[in-house]
Amino acid sequence: MTSVRDREDDDRRELPVRPTDEDPLAASGSEILGGPIGRRARIGGYRWWNPMRVMVLVVIGMFALGMAQKASCYSSAWFQAGDPQYIHACYSDIPHLYSQRGFGSDLVPYFDRIPDTISGSSDLHYLEYPVLTGLFMEVASWVTPHGSDQHSAQAYWIANSAMLLICAVVLVVCVARTNRRRPWDGLLVALSPALALTATINWDLFAVALTAAGLMLWSRGRPGAAGVLIGLATAAKLYPVLLLGALFLLCLRAGRLRSFGATLGGAIAAWLVVNVPVMLLAPHGWAQFYTFSRTRPTDYGSLWLIISERAQTPLNSVNAYATALMLLLCAAIAGLSLYAPRRPRVGQLAFLVVAALVLSNKVYSPQYVLWLLPLAVLARPRWRDLLIWQGAEVLYFLGIWMRLAYVTGSKHHGLTADAYHVAVGLHLLGLLYLCALVVRDMLLPQYDVLRQDGEDDPAGGVLDGAQDVFVLGPVPHEPKHAAQHAGYDAGTRHPAP
């Protein structure tokens, strides 16, 4: 028989979570708007001003601020010799690659070769981006007046920015809808300074939006559709494939391998549909991305760059070192996922595996922070912790451009190697800080923000409330309310396979 307290707990779980009720920093920040929302406030009283519309407007505003931050480069610095675009911290790959990758000359990606204008050699090569990102770049060129002048490159950046703005809106909407009770978590993405600064540097936001959409579909108990989105995201950027490893471990622990099979099948099918035509018709152009990734040397932002420059010797086997570290970190994450007293949430494990890639990779471009942004919000939706991490990322954003200004400029304005190493170290420490909090939440679930009110994994889809069937550590106590979920698919309440 259900007690009055249990009924009150169940009723409370059906209400949306208000950030000012549970987050001290959000409550303090709300003072400039009149303080935390009151107990008698009319939630949803104004139908138009719902959380989703507010967050969409906020992310559009932040995206516009990011574009304004690039204004000095848009007007002249992208097209000047020397270091102005680095001094003003407004660099973007997009206008440069418009001419350097043949979009202004009507060359077809993966089929037509282009000169290597970056290194100054006469060698020809193909576009070094995954197929779906190449399609994104090509679509933007279709609406750009072709030519090799400054105005065409500016128009190409504007066209890409408009498309990336749509991706930013999709990203915020998907994060807000992944956990039905926490729609305001999307505001952590919409107000992100890292998003504003890095959204138009490159095309990563496209893959990030697809990944977020896949996780939203997973949270709604649609593993096959989620797999399709993850497969498409992997066709745009390689990192989303790591989410399949995280989902496999969680499904293994919960005995939901058939659901994982649907996700894996959908991902493989979607990736093949996008890649096979180019693979067959232009095999050398298709392989360029993978060849470039394998042969790329140690580059800016990585742990290996610090080691190499401090030791004053090149790391000839950096691929082996990076792979070994990545495998070691993944093994530790796998052990943690199967040993933790409660099954980790999807957001937690997804964040850790992508963070492992960032920490071990031989390059870290400033826009890579976008890979982690939605996963960090799902893993640890706390304003203070996310702002500490993003503060370190903003410092690195400034540090990389000041280092490039020092290297490329004749006057050496910017950061020396030692100062730049400090910036890289701060970026690594900021990420490790957030990883440590997520690991603590996994080992000590009472610190987990989402589990303090008795929930299991509200973004877990078929995993939410599922009982563990494969655990390496001591058999945990069955989570509260798990019994009502056991043997059922989340969101459908039909018997699970």
From TrEMBL:
Subcellular location, principal: membrane
Location within or outside the cell: Cell membrane
Keywords, comma-separated and alphabetical: Cell membrane, Membrane, Transferase, Transmembrane, Transmembrane helix
TM stretches of this protein: 48-68, 155-176, 188-218, 224-250, 262-282, 320-339, 346-364, 387-407, 419-439
Cell membrane in keyword set: yes
Superkingdom to which the source organism belongs: Bacteria
Region (Disordered): 1-29
InterPro entries: GT87 (IPR018584), UCP010361 (IPR016570)
Membrane topology summary: Multi-pass membrane protein
Ranges annotated as biased composition (Basic and acidic residues): 1-21
Family membership noted in the UniProt record: Belongs to the glycosyltransferase 87 family.
Protein name: Glycosyltransferase 87 family protein
Lineage, broadest ranks: Bacteria, Bacillati, Actinomycetota, Actinomycetes, Kitasatosporales
